[in-house]
């Protein structure tokens, strides 16, 4: 069974620009998400350092890194989100602040056709990696 997730890449905290949403069909649990985000972060660092003439924002470099170093993904708009998404990750600030990643668990009530988004983590990528090792912390009661 797949663990579906949405990765939302924000331009920055003060921007009114909407995030770019990417849907990943599998391995969306927190310890899997850490790998996908770290891969994107490493690729973004190379792009920004090795290709300054591209004039990429850190967010755009992260998106390129995410799309080129991960599999099973696609760009998706908010109104077309799958009803069975289990996790949402909001990525922003890109190293400028300690709060870079916000993780949410989507609790579904299939009988009443409702969902509730619960925040389960806020912090840096390194903090998320450490936090995600404790599987019991992934879901909030």
Compose a concise summary of this entry.
By secondary structure, this protein is of the alpha+beta class. It is 28% helix and 26% strand.
What does this structure look like?
Helix 1 crosses helix 2. The model has no long low-confidence stretch (mean pLDDT 80). It contains 3 helices and 6 strands. It has one domain (5-137). The protein has a 6-stranded mixed β-sheet. It is globular. It has helices at 30-50, 58-68, 125-132, and strands at 5-9, 20-24, 73-75, 87-91, 101-109, 114-123. 28% of the residues lie in helices and 26% in strands. The protein has 141 residues and is α+β, with helices and mostly antiparallel strands. A hairpin with a 4-residue loop joins strand 5 and strand 6 (114-123).
Topology diagram in text:
Elements: E1 5-9, E2 20-24, H1 30-50, H2 58-68, E3 73-75, E4 87-91, E5 101-109, E6 114-123, H3 125-132
Parallel strand pairs: 1-4
Antiparallel strand pairs: 1-2, 2-3, 4-5, 5-6
Helix pairs in contact: 1-2, 1-3
Name its key features:
141 residues; alpha+beta; six-stranded mixed sheet; 28% helix; globular
Radius of gyration: 15 Å
Average pLDDT metric: 80
Describe the biggest sheet? 6 strands, mixed
DSSP strand tally = 6
What's the helix-strand series? EEHHEEEEH
């Amino acid at each position: 069974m797949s663990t579906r997730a949405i990765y939302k890449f924000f331009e920055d905290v003060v921007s009114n620009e909407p995030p770019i949403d990417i849907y990943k069909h599998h391995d969306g649990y927190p310890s899997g998400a850490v790998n996908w985000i770290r891969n994107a972060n490493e690729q973004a660092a190379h792009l920004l350092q090795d290709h300054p003439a591209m004039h990429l924002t850190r967010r755009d470099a992260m998106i390129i890194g995410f799309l080129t170093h991960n599999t099973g993904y696609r760009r998706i708009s908010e109104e077309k989100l799958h009803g069975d998404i289990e996790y949402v990750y909001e990525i922003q600030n890109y190293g400028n602040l300690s709060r870079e990643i916000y993780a949410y668990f989507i609790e579904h009530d299939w009988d009443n056709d409702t969902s509730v988004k619960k925040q389960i983590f806020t912090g840096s990528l390194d903090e998320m990696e450490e936090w995600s090792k404790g599987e019991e912390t992934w879901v909030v009661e």
